[in-house]
Design goal:
heterodimer, A: Pyruvate-ferredoxin Oxidoreductase, domain 3, Rossmann fold, 4 domains, seven-stranded mixed beta sheet, 24 strands, globular, B: Rossmann fold, eight-stranded mixed beta sheet, 31% helix
Chain lengths: 635, 321
């Protein structure tokens, strides 16, 4: 774990750390936590490294690299016996209860902890306490190292280079781990590739810190990080990036957004890559990213674009989606293939702007006035984010309806290593399109009644074809109609598309099932808890339990028959999700009549770790769990 | 084939009140489209909610009848996706200056090459006559229980200050003049706004056709009414920005001119500047092939459905082993 005040380069440190491990053939999973603040508040990156692919954090911290005292205060209890704390020598005398960026509520809790453990309130006292618990404390004179770098670079204004502490901390960490320096140097060069002026300064800092750690290696540290040779081509990416790449591959050519956490990174990443490479040099591809005045404009602008035949999408979070609801209702009524990428965060209202939550499942399903068909897809991991971003556009055009792609902060801001995504099977399906050579373009009816509910769609601008759209109830031609008979037929035409989706989308795109098909204990979940659940299952299986896990990926329309089939034999159905009420459990009951016997919930803004999911599931399996367990790990 | 005005009439019954200014605005629009030589499939009329929102249904051209106040973002989405289309946004004064005014202002920052017509009658017609944002302070039109307690927005001044590069005002019942203004607005390179004064015979019993015609002001010498409206082009007013150095002064002049109201109300073009880059120009600077391959005309897959885009460079950038 790497922690420090916001603005001190935590993100950069995390990226270097992850890439350095990845360069050595290791797998990495890392989660970013930060305040809604620009500078000064506590932020950290929790990174897990393994020879195998991993998909969640655990509760324990082996290495804690702290840029400031607060990081140690906040994470001291997570460091395991035998673990290492890397601390700035200049911080040791800090009176921890005087740290201004710590909230009153946290301080009062922490004061009680200090009293209970009989610790005085300087950081040095805390570190002495850690040492008693067999934690190694490695003190680094960061300011001396910075000065040394300053001398080497002939830079007199030390303040200018003080930000380099983040790279120093990395150098110290890898030095203590005895990791190959060259792999870290490569990561530094990659991360600063676009800033050639500061690359060498950072490499110098890295080398210096690494050497310092090697020269001052304390006895008894039992960690080492050997590289693993692999011929596999791998990437290290975040959920935001996975969605962005999926979108452009899937044909997105207009993306609209209004700045909001944690969605905006996706749009900015696309904009930075607005001119795309094509497989045939004759083809041209470019995405226009439009920053709009608000989310109402974002969805309506994307919808207007979609009517011309462009694959258009918008990305937002809860508050933005609230504003989008009238546009969503219009898109539903007008059968517009628009994609909304919805990054959930802790709600209601502004809620926890930079923290995690899965509070908005029901909102995504029900948002917008009136009844209209929509698809709600929920990705469970970063890789699914990529493929679902493509699928969302296909569904939108095949079924001519808005598609909401539900992601969350834990996926958006976590980064993970993967083998290169396989794109050979990716296919673009545009549905029923009427072009200028088709029959029926004279007297064209955009909303013609059909068996499937899907009418031939002409892009606006198609030669000699005229389309009308309206948010009013309309006839087949798209003109306003308040006729009772037409209303009934048009409602049925739209709504029967849900049945068409249910029939035509293959089951493997709607649910995943992991573990024992005949298990008596079946977990049901959606979205980002998937990673922690899968890891927890490994432990449970090695304990001798039989367990199955049903991950629901398409939540609207709900894959009722498949879910019933998977759950009807289960003795215990255990719902796991990141909200207060167990929204999926409610939907499950409504759709299938099956009630979850147990709910494992969390709503403190921090993603589930595999450790706590394992513990909670085990409680259920051994018959010692209440019907509702609330998880609380994280700071 | 040269199309006539009547070729732009759809078969939908025009259900506005008899005597409504909308009939004349519709006619002016249809005539303008015919005279501009446009074909119905090249045109997109995008409207909001209210009486004016129905315009697209009455015109034989692509029509998108959107949400209250959201005319402009829909319209900009269409135009940016396919700049070959001729996009005309249409909305009421409540639609554009009340619920949608944030979009109106921000559209000015983009200068997308399209036209925006505001039907300006001072009232919300479809909801039975409430005061709209252009009704003057203290006026008590028929259906409101008390005199209007809010100041009015001046659409011309707002448009000029928001960055619209063509700002004009027309009058529904000076239909030929309005038609010419619409044509100029459509031809303009950049975002054009036309504020169209229009009587609402049902709910605005103050700014009536007779009021605009000056029926209450009889010239004692001729015995005829003195109209309130006069045409800017018949004065020495010059709306055109010929070099960017004079842009600020032209804007100030337009805003000052737009303050005239009451006994003398100018119609015509207040401000025109074609020297500024449109949004299309700005995109082209970043994506050079935009004009030839706008988003709506890019091939996104081959015949078999394989994506056109090659994302290996994304993966190479993120590559670690």
């Amino acid at each position: 774990m790497v922690g420090g005040p916001q603005g001190s380069g935590i993100d950069v440190a995390a990226n270097i750390f992850g890439r350095a491990c990845g360069n050595g053939g290791l797998h990495v999973y890392g989660r970013r936590e930060y305040h809604s603040n620009i500078k000064g508040m506590h932020s950290y990156f929790h990174l897990r490294i393994s020879p195998e692919e991993i998909s969640a954090n655990v509760n324990d911290v082996d290495f804690l690299a702290a840029f400031d005292a607060e990081t140690i205060v906040r994470h001291l209890t997570e460091v395991v016996a035998g673990g290492v704390i890397i601390v700035d020598k200049g911080q040791v005398d800090t009176r921890v209860l005087d740290i201004p960026s710590m909230s009153h509520e946290f301080k009062s809790e922490f004061r009680k902890y200090l009293e209970k453990e009989k610790i005085n309130d300087s950081l040095g006292d805390l570190l002495a306490f850690a040492k008693k618990k067999n934690v190694h404390v490695f003190t680094v004179p960061y300011s001396e190292l910075v000065e040394e770098i300053g001398k080497k670079l002939r830079e007199e204004k030390i303040a200018r280079i003080s930000r380099i502490v983040n790279v120093l901390a990395i150098g110290i960490s890898f030095g203590l781990l005895g990791y190959e320096l060259e792999l870290v140097q490569r990561a530094v060069r990659d991360v600063f590739a676009e800033k050639p002026k500061i690359v060498e300064m950072n490499v110098l800092a890295l080398n210096l810190a690494y050497e310092y750690a090697r020269n001052n290696l304390p006895a008894g540290i039992n960690y080492s990080l050997p590289r693993i040779s692999t011929s596999e081509k791998r990437i290290f990416l975040s959920g935001n990036q996975a969605v962005a790449i999926g979108k452009v591959l899937g044909g997105c050519r207009i993306q609209t957004y209004y700045p909001i956490t944690p969605a905006a990174d996706e749009s900015e990443y696309i904009e930075a890559h607005e001119i795309l490479k094509t497989r045939n040099s004759g083809d041209k591809a470019g995405v226009i990213v439009l920053q709009t005045e608000d989310e109402i404009a974002a969805i309506t602008m994307a919808s207007g674009a979609a009517l011309t035949g462009v694959r258009a999408s918008t990305s937002t979070s809860g508050p933005g989606f609230s504003l989008m609801t009238e546009g969503l209702s219009w898109a539903g009524n007008n059968e517009v293939p628009v994609v909304i990428t919805y990054y959930q965060r802790g709600a209601p209202s502004t809620g926890l702007p930079t923290r995690h939550g899965q509070d908005d499942l029901r909102f995504a399903i029900h948002a917008g006035h009136g009844e209209f068909p929509r698809i709600v897809l929920a990705s469970g991991d970063i890789k699914e984010c990529f493929y679902d971003a493509i699928a969302a556009f296909n569904y939108a055009e095949q079924f001519q309806l808005p598609v909401i792609h539900l992601i969350d902060k834990a996926l958006a801001n976590s980064s993970q290593t993967f083998p290169f995504f396989d794109i050979n099977g990716v296919s673009i399906k545009r549905g029923n399109i009427l072009d200028e050579t088709s029959e029926g373009k004279e007297d064209y009816k955009r909303f013609a009644f059909t068996e499937s509910g899907i009418s031939p769609r002409a892009f606006i601008g198609t030669r000699n074809v005229i389309s009308w759209y309206t948010g009013d109830e309309h006839n087949e031609k798209g003109h306003i109609s308040e006729e009772a008979v037409n209303r009934t037929l048009m409602m049925e035409k739209r709504m029967k598309k849900l049945g068409t989706v249910a029939r035509e989308v293959p089951v493997e795109e709607k649910i995943n099932f992991f573990g024992d098909q005949n298990a008596e204990n079946v977990i049901v979940s959606w979205g980002s808890p998937k990673g922690a659940i899968l890891e927890a299952m490994k432990g449970l299986i090695s304990d001798g339990f039989k367990v199955g896990f049903l991950q629901i990926r398409m939540i609207e329309p709900f894959p009722r028959e498949y879910v019933i089939k998977k759950l009807e034999a289960a003795k215990k159905v255990i719902d796991v999700e990141m909200n207060f009420s167990g929204q999926l459990a409610g939907i499950l009951k409504e759709q299938t009549g099956i009630a979850a016997d147990f709910r494992i919930l969390k709503y403190n803004g921090r993603p589930m770790t595999s450790t706590e999911v394992y513990d909670a599931l085990k409680n259920v399996f051994i018959g010692q769990a209440p019907e509702r367990q609330v998880l609380t790990y994280g700071s | 084939m040269v199309l006539k005005w009547s070729d732009f009439k759809s078969d939908v019954f025009v259900d506005w009140c008899p005597g409504c200014g909308n009939h004349a605005i519709l006619a002016a629009l249809q005539m303008a489209l015919a005279e501009l030589g446009l074909e119905p499939h090249q045109i997109v009329l995008v409207s909001g909610i209210g009486c004016s929102g129905k315009v697209p249904h009455f015109v034989k051209a692509n029509g998108i009848h959107t949400l209250h106040g959201r005319t402009l973002p829909f319209a900009q989405g269409v135009k940016i996706a396919n700049p070959d289309l001729e996009v005309i946004a249409i909305g009421g004064d409540g639609d554009g200056l009340g619920i949608g005014v944030g979009h109106l202002v921000n559209a000015g920052r983009r200068n997308v090459d399209m036209t925006y017509l505001i039907h300006d009658n001072g009232v919300y017609g479809l909801t039975k006559g409430q005061a709209s944002p252009t009704l003057r302070l203290g006026l008590k039109v028929k259906a409101i229980p008390r005199p209007n307690i809010n100041e009015a927005i001046n659409p011309v001044m707002l448009a000029v200050s928001s960055g619209y590069t063509f700002v004009a005002r027309g009058y529904a019942f000076d239909t030929k003049h309005l038609k010419e203004i619409i044509k100029e607005a459509v031809r303009h390179k950049g975002l054009a706004l036309v504020d169209i004064l229009q009587p609402c015979p049902t709910y605005n019993d103050i700014n009536t056709k007779d009021w605009y015609a000056g029926s209450d002001r009889i010239d004692p010498e001729t015995g005829k009414p003195v109209p309130r409206l006069y045409r800017l082009e018949e004065t020495d007013y010059d709306p055109n920005v010929r070099n960017l150095n004079e842009d600020f002064d032209k804007k100030i002049e337009a805003m000052r001119k737009s303050q005239e109201w009451g006994n003398r109300i100018p119609i015509g073009i207040f401000y025109r500047n074609e020297l500024l880059p449109t949004f299309q120009d700005r995109i082209t600077r970043r994506i050079p092939f935009y004009r030839m391959y706008p988003p709506a005309k890019q091939k996104i897959s081959d015949e078999g459905g394989a994506p056109s885009v090659d994302v290996t460079e994304f993966f190479d950038e993120l590559r670690i082993t």
